Amino acid sequence: MRGRDTALVAAVVVVGTLWGLNWPTVKFMLTELPPLTIRAAAFTLAAAVLAVIAVSRGNGFRPKRGEWPALIVTGLLVVLGFNVMTTFGQLHTQASMAVILAYTMPGMTAVLAALLIGERLGPRKIAAVVLAMLGVAVLLSEDIAGVLADPLGVVFMLLAAFFWALGNVALKARKWSLPSLVLTVWFFVASAVLSWPLVMLFEPPAGQTLPSWPVAVAFAYHVLGPMVVCYALWTVIVDRLPASTAAITTLLAPIVGVTSAVVLLGEPVSWQKGAALVMVLGSIALVLPGRAAAPDR
Predict the structure, then answer these.
(1) What is the C-alpha to C-alpha distance for residues 57 and 59, in angstroms, rounded to an integer?
(2) pLDDT in the model for residue 294
(3) Residues near 64 by beta carbon (within 8 Å), at least 6 away in sequence
(4) Is 7's pLDDT higher than 80?
(5) DSSP string covering the chain
(6) The pLDDT value given to residue 129
(7) Is the dihedral of CA 247, 250, 251, 253 positive or negative?
(8) Cα four-point dihedral sign 66, 69, 70, 75
């Protein structure tokens, strides 16, 4: 395997694992912290850490004239929209169900990329998307009654998937003047600036108490892993791969998310979850960089 392919596979594995573990982590934090507060604080800290890293690398921070609107909109989609919707979604559904619902994003990304930026959907990509969506359908069949009783979880998670898909197509649609790491910093800054007024309005800090140390540790992991490491790597992955392919490769996250939710949170095991995980693994195998080198036929 070529060095570039090896690096991309490693990035996909790291992103998928850390984002997967983030689902039970957020569910655990929600036992003591309100959703908007979690996100606003995480956005702010992640922006600060990534900015320090970018400065140490000598990166410039000033985008080209006229790039600000696209930068802000893209950041609000892939960071604020996705993360806030997933947090509210987990208030209404299991973490293992939430992660699979969120990963309807590959199909949305593939369709939006074809419609908006002219990416071609060959048989291999279509097969990967279909296999992943079948996995989602099988998993949801585990608790149809529960979904129907509280549909807000489904609504929030599908909105999260749509925001993520649209944001990644927007990220892929233009050649940015800034490095991927600096883009990520600005995405977090824009999201933090908008989220803090929402915290002050709906979750005033004066009415909150400090979290216990286990929740504080979980929050530290949430910031340093899923926020700092994953978003920095994700912008590189999207820059190197077609938008639809990049979205499908991160389907490793629901595998880790479902498994860790079962192990760490005690969520129920079922044949539907097992079958869904097998289907998701198959979809990942179809789009690994080594195979993606051959053109669609």
Answers:
(1) 6
(2) 29
(3) 177
(4) no
(5) --HHHHHHHHHHHHHHHHHHHHHHHHHHHTTTS-HHHHHHHHHHHHHHHHHHHHHHTT---PPPTT-HHHHHHHHIIIIIIHHHHHHHHHTSS-HHHHHHHHTTHHHHHHHHHHHHS-----HHHHHHHHHHHHHHHHHHGGGHHHHHH-THHHHHHHHHHHHHHHHHHHHHSS--SS-HHHHHHHHHHHHHHHHHHHHHHHS-GGG--PPPHHHHHHHHHHIIIIIIIHHHHHHHHHHHS-HHHHHHHTTHHHHHHHHHHHHHH-PPP-HHHHHHHHHHHHHHHHT-HHHHTSPP-
(6) 81
(7) negative
(8) positive
- pTM, two decimals, is 0.85
pLDDT score at 92: 92
Residues shown for the chain: 297
Separation CA 200–CA 222 (nearest Å): 22
Euclidean distance between CA atoms 56 and 130, whole angstroms: 43
What amino acid occupies position 187? F
pLDDT surpasses 70 at 5: no
Residue scoring higher pLDDT (258 or 49): 49
As to burial, measured by CB atoms within 10 angstroms (0-12 exposed, 13-18 middle, 19+ buried), residue 5 is middle
Check whether 288 has a pLDDT greater than 60: no
Q: Give the model's confidence band at 293: pLDDT under 50 very low, under 70 low, under 90 confident, else very high.
A: very low
- pLDDT tens for each residue of 206-255: 889 999 999 999 999 999 999 998 877 876 776 676 655 665 666 678 78
Task: Please state, in angstroms and rounded to a whole number, the distance separating the CA atoms of residues 194 and 186.
Answer: 12
Locus of tokens 């947090």: 87
